[in-house]
Amino acid sequence: MSQAFIRRLRRLAVVAAALLVGLTPSRLEAQSFGIGPRFAFVRGDVSSDASTRYSGGLLRVRPSPRIALEFSLDYRNHLNESLTERIKDYPIQGSLLLYPVRATVSPYVLGGIGWYRQRVDTLADDLVVGSTTSRKTGYHAGIGSDLWLGRRATLHVDYRYTFIGRQNGDADAASGAVPIPGLGFLQDRLRLSHKGSMWTTGLTVYF
């Protein structure tokens, strides 16, 4: 067997191995992008036991095993007690999730920004006679955990505090703020008002 023929076989083996590696999805690649449903239970006041349920969906992107980016959209549609207003809420959140360990049960800490849109339709004889829309921006932080269900799905639960930015002249400007330990100066600068907390849970399927 000639040396030239052996060199050709080696090159073919290297090319074949490279193709095999490139065509075989790694675990990280198979789990780098995921979508799924989620539910949120929101309390507007941490001293209250009453909560409001939202439903929606989430998208998670994992640039590395210890970092995930989450984008979520929730929705709630309800009538007030007198049936004179239909209220629609569309909270959107973008969050950074950091995982100190990676295991079947993977705890994480999170933080991010949210955009909170609410539309109120005024009703008369079941007809919409007027509408107003409000928009607020805020921040959130919390802790949670993923439970891996095999290689391509996780079930998560987390708890988040929400801080909504106040506009000049808001009624909450003086009375609604709860001090953030060690970050009071930042809270004053950003004009943040504590707006309660939320539990979220959901299922994410990765591709």
How does this model look, in words?
- β6 (127-148) and β7 form a beta hairpin.
- This protein is elongated.
- Mean pLDDT is 78; it is low at 16-30 and 171-180.
- It has an eight-stranded antiparallel beta barrel with strand order 1-2-3-4-5-6-7-8.
- The protein is an alpha+beta fold and 207 residues long.
- It starts with a helix and ends with a strand.
- The longest helix is centred in the first third of the chain and has 21 residues, at 3-23.
- The chain has helices spanning 3-23, 27-30, 172-175, 184-190, and strands at 33-43, 52-64, 67-79, 85-98, 105-124, 127-148, 153-165, 192-206.
- The chain contains four helices and eight strands; from the N terminus they run ααβββββββααβ.
- It has one domain (32-206): Porin, CATH 2.40.160.20.
Write the topology of this structure.
Layout: H1 3-23, H2 27-30, E1 33-43, E2 52-64, E3 67-79, E4 85-98, E5 105-124, E6 127-148, E7 153-165, H3 172-175, H4 184-190, E8 192-206
Antiparallel strand pairs: 1-2, 1-8, 2-3, 3-4, 4-5, 5-6, 6-7, 7-8
